[in-house]
Structure formats: C-alpha cells, structure tokens
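> tool_call: predict_assembly(chains=two)
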Amino acid sequence: MFKHTVRVFIGHTICLGVAAFLSGITCVHALEVNYTNSAHGNATYGVNRSDMPDAYAVGNCAHCHVQHGSVDGSAGAVHGFALFSANLVEGADITYKSTDSVCFQCHTTSNSRQQGGSVPNPDYAETFGGFSENSDQGVLEQYNPDTQLEDSYHNLDEVRIYAAQNFAWFKEYTTPCEACHNPHIARRNKAHVKDPTYTAISLPSDHGNLWGDDAGETMARYGGDYQAPFYYNSTTSYEPGGLLNSDPSKVPDYVTFCNECHGSEKAPIYSTRRERNLVMVNWSAAGDKHGARGRDGKTWLREPYATIGGKSNYVLSCVDCHEPHASPYPFLMRRSINGQPLNLNEPGLGPDKRGFQCLQCHQDDNAMGYGGVNDWARQHHGLGGDSPYSGRNNIGPSGKPLANCDCHGAFEGDIGSGKNPIRCEICHYHGSSVPNPAGEWPATVTPKNGEQKTF
Amino acid sequence: MPASGTHINGDQRVDAALRVSAGFVVSVLALLVFLLCWVAPVHARVTGPCSNCHTMHYSQNNSILSEWDEGGPHQALLRTDCGGCHTGTNEFGGKTPFVMSDAPEYGESGIEANATTLAGGSFYWVNQPANKAVGGEATGHNVAGLTTADSILHTPPGFDGGRAAADGSRPGGGTWPSGQQVTCAGVYGCHGTHSEAAQTSAIHGAHHGDLGGARINPGNAPAAGYRFLVGIEGYEDPNWEIRPTADAHNQYKGLNNPGGSNTSTISSLCARCHGAYHSGTGNTGTSSPWLRHPTDYDMGNASSSEYRNYGGMGNSYNPAVPLASETVTSVKNKVTFSNDTIVTCLSCHRAHGSKYYKAMRWNYAGSVNGGLCTECHSSKK
C-alpha cells in the first residue's frame, strides 16, 4: 500500500513537472495591460517631446501632460487634461493641422514634436497589408492626402461629438482619437503586426482595456468563417503581415470594434461630408452578406475566396476593405485590397471607382475573360441562374422589359445610357436590398424581390 | 478570590492585604517613574536657556563666540538667522527641525527607515549639481541665504499678483521683482506674515508660542498657524514627519473646493505665490477635464475611479503621497474618500526641496510612469 502510494505520488510529481515544463515552453503570456507596456510608456521609444528638459525620462507623463501648464516657468495656453496642446480644435475639418489635435503634434512625419521630428504610422494597407507604394507615412498626412481624388477620413470633430453623446467616460474635450485608442495602454502594433496582443485599440464601451489582445476578441470568434485576404502582391501569404496561412486569431475582431459606433442598433451618425446620416451596419446573420448572413446563390469570387468548397459564407473584417483613419479614396476605401492596389489614380478608369474596390474579391468581366476591367455585365446579365438580370422578362424602372436598358442612365451620377455602367453603390452598400426601400426601383425589377440580395 | 467554601484565617487576610498594598505602591512608583522619565514626543515651543538662541550684546570678551553667526547682530537678539539654527542632521526624536544639512538621506520618497529629512524635505540638493532628474537648482525653493538663485525662474512660476493670506498680506505686496529670491519668512517668504519686511518680525512670537498638534481656526498669529504659516490649519506630527507611517504623520488641511478662495488649506499657502496653478478662471478649471492638475479636490468625487486604489487594500494613508482632509483634529491612518482624500500641492511636492527635479517627493521626471503618480492614477502603472 505504501509503495503504491509512493509510486502514485512520484508519478503525479513527474506528470506535473512535465506539464509545468511544457506549459512554460508553449504558453504565450499576454503582457499586462498598463502604461509601461504601452507604446507611449515604453522607456525606449515612448513619448519623448523634443522641447522638454532632459530631466524627463522617455515615456514620462510630462511629455504629454503639463501638470501646471508651464515648463520652467514658461506658461503657454492650458488645455483639457493638462495636455500640452489642444485636444481638438472644434470644427477642425477639411485640412487638419498639427495644432488641431494633441495627437497630431507627434503623429506626423513633418515637424513632429517627438524627438527625431517624425513618427511614421503608415495606413492599414501598408502596415498590415504590405502595400507601401505612394503611401503617406504619418497619420496627419493621411488625413490630408496630396491627391486630387475624393479623399475620406474619420471626421474628428464628428467623432468627438458622437463619442461625447454616447460614451459616459468621454468628456467634452477628450481627444477624439481616444474614442478608439486609449493612449495609456495602446500598444505598438505597427512593430508587431502579426501579434494582436500588441493591439492599439480599445472598445469605446470598454475604454480601460485593450481590444484584440485576448482570446475571444479576434476574428477567430467567427468560427472559421473569416478568411484573411492576400498580403500585397502575393497569392500565397496573407494579412496581417504576410502570414503563410490565414489565421483569424491574428486579427482583432474589428467587426465588433467598428460596430460599437457603426452598428445598425446604434445611434445614428451624421456626416457633414455626405450631408446625411451614415448607413449603419448589420453584420449579423440577419444583416449583410459580407457579414454573417449566408449566401443565397452563386457568387463569382476571386482567390482566396473562390476555391474553398462548401463554404456558405465568409465574415469579412471591416479593415479588409476600409482604412480606420483616412484614405485618399471615398468611404475610407483601402489603397489596396486583397493583395492588389486599387490604382484609382490612373487616368481613364471611368466614373465607377467603387467597382475597383469590388473587383479585388469579385470577378469583373476582365477576370472572367469576357470584357474590360471594372465591367460587370457578365455578373449581372450573362451567366443565368444567380445572375439577376439575365431574364428578359424583368422590368426596368420605366416599366418596360430590361432589354430597353433603361436602368442605365436612370440614376444620378450615371454617364449616359446603354452599356455605360451603373455605379455599384446604387445597389450595393451596407444594408442594401432590392427593391430599394426608398422606392426608386419597382418591385418587379428583380427576381429576388424583397430580399437583401446586394450586399 | 478563594474558591467557594474555602476558609480564610486572619494571617492570610493580613498577608493578602500586604501583598495588595505592596503591589499598589509598586504600581504608583512605576507610574511616577514613567511620568518623570517619559519625554513627551512634542517639540513645539522652544525650551532651554535663553542663550541657546539669544545673545544680549552679540559680544563676548569683545568678540563673538564660534557658535554665533558671523553675520550678526540679528534681530530679536538672536545668535544667528533661520538657516543658522535649522541646519543640522535630523534624527528621530530630535528637538530642532533641520531643513538644511550635509548630505541628508532621502531614500526613494523621503519616508524610508534611513531618511533624515522631514516633511518639508531639504534645501540641500538645490546646491548640488544636476544629474538628469536628481539634484540641481530645480530640486527645491531657492531660498536666499541658503541656496543659489534659480538661473531660469526669476519670479515664482504661476505668480499672479499674490493671493492674500488670512491676515490680508500678500507676497511682495502683490508684486514680485524679477530676480528676488524667496525667503524663509516675511514679504517674500512662506512663514509668518507677508506684511513684515524683516523675517524675524514676520514670525514674531512664533517660536515661543508654538503649540504643536492640531491647529484649528488659528487666526492671524504666526504662532497659531500650522508650522508658523499664517492662517493655515493642520495637525503637526510631533517628529515633523521624520520616517512617517500611516499612523504618524502630518495631517494636512484641504477642502473639496477646487478654485476656492479659502485661506486655511495647505494648498492655499502655495497659491499665494503660485496662484495660477491653484485657481482662477482659465487656470485649473473646476472639474474634469482639468486644465492644470487640481488641488483642494477630493478624489472621493470620482466614484468607481482608479483613485479608489489609493493606499492599496484597506486604503491606508500613504505618507509618501499625502492627502489632505477637511478635519485635522487628529491623524488619519486610513482614507474613506469622503473629504479625506483631498489633493494638495504637498501630495506631490516637498515644500523645501527633495533630491528630485521640481521638488517632487519621488522621482517623477526620471520614471516612465511618473513613479508614485500611480498611487492615485492607479490605472497608469
């Protein structure tokens, strides 16, 4: 009996020892969420304002907070939270300056207040997608793209107003960047693009914690329905950072994150740029097909989404298509999507710029070997089955059969008629369905009456 | 008491009575010895021979004694000036609070077991060379006669015309000449009234009238104010906070009234010269988001905040990061977040100086997360 007990004890001890040894090898311990583990609080590359006395350590509070509004007796203007610069100049818009936001004072590549004079933070397309061509390196520069295209950005004044109205912790003059980032805990994800424990974002509803660093806070929570897009110029590696396999656990759950404001159940968001409320997003099974709603017919896709058989659906991440900060393109479209640049600055691509976003994942006529780049006739008319307007008996807006082509040219912004394209966003946008609830489309125009067919 | 039913004879009664009497006498003697030998830990008013402090003619055999200050004669027939008496090495139980000494021990925050500095810290480091966040002219008040003048700050930072003390006097009479060094007392000093040019006159009667302990409603007399600070309330630790603990420390007066004009709080004292840092339109604000770090603000206002972790489990008073209270009748060893967690200037700074940049109690500038800032800002560790 005694010998048996001893043997059992020794056996358990060995097992526990081996288990402890293995766990020590294999376990990944997330860093504690605190300031000294944050990007700003790092003793090497943390905050370090160039005009501060050298008594202050790198990362010290004083590089952002001037406790008495004065450095060596030189008093400047005082700002909320004792910050050294304005949190945000009210109404700042269109062209942002470094003085418009305390964050822009350092997060710029031009005369940054940080030692060295430059803090590059390339956009998502470059940082996580690898597309570095023609990329503005600073956040401030991204907000002011040097292009003639229709740029877009998260309007900071509108963010400020919305956050103040919807999140109790957000004070009147909290820096709008804080709606998404907690500067005291945000980590340096740009240096660890494949490791979401270095996430820089916090849910607006849980500002004191990071988002994406814990299990259950990544795209893996969608049960394998997330397929990472290709890394730039590759068909064998994936975002983020060129992983050799699509790994949803490496991507923070941006769907939950973005929908803290943009979700369809949330308060409306007014856009001064669009002069209307933004379309809210429903990424659930009852919402968009780019979200959790299943397919209801055939879709002609490009890789890596085309070849996986038996999939009823993919749940995309918002940042697969959109930039979180700003973009030289409308609607925060990324400069590259699914490994390919949009190249919208090339001349002669026609008015339907939105199609270049779509064709990164969907097959246009060119991809089908049927026609030109960003032509979509075959998807809509030529394939039968799920190709919605193949049937000659469908009725167009004029009440006549589709053969009249009177859909083309019927919408604001369309160029001419005939084969000239209808802008994608007439039918395809978050929450869109046919017929359009606004009534522009007769109920008879589609074989999928009443269903959320288009997005 | 014998067990019930036990018989006690007369001898036993006498013996018992003697034992009781002897015990009583021993107890009384012990009490007397204790009372005679016990040195009360109160070092309030000065004691001892007059010649400890005064000299009638500032002359002994037509010369001066070596222990006298060569800069005399001094007002009030004193042997020396402020720095002359208050320079030395502090020890636990010492009878004179020293504010200047050779190489005092400060530890990390001035409260450690080997520390030889008091609540106000020491001016010593002001005269030492700067090495990043340690030492140098920015580590304390640059007091005339004790330290060099500040090469950068020629007037008190935040001076906005001088806030009045309880007696109506203002530092500099409301104007601070550029280059004027701060003094211990008087027009440009902290102790006593600002209405008297001479430092000795400014604290007239203070050393003889000092009471120690709690100072409540002190009026205008320098002796009645906390640490000879006119109108200031507070509870004085009898050991002037050498190696303070949660149970033995100063209890500073504060009010939950940011931007207020009360003249009894310890922060209001600082505000006399650094007013822009204390209150006023556009200076600090009256609620979050603050424009400058608030004082005379009770952290208890922010319920469910990171501040509730002050003092750790049980919220013990942390003498390294002292907080003020509305009542100062006694020492508080815990905080309740109800008018006893009031932020003061002294929560972060030493009034005289420390070894750290900007007279911080801890090495704020030299640390990434601000060091003991996290005692209150506990989510920023």
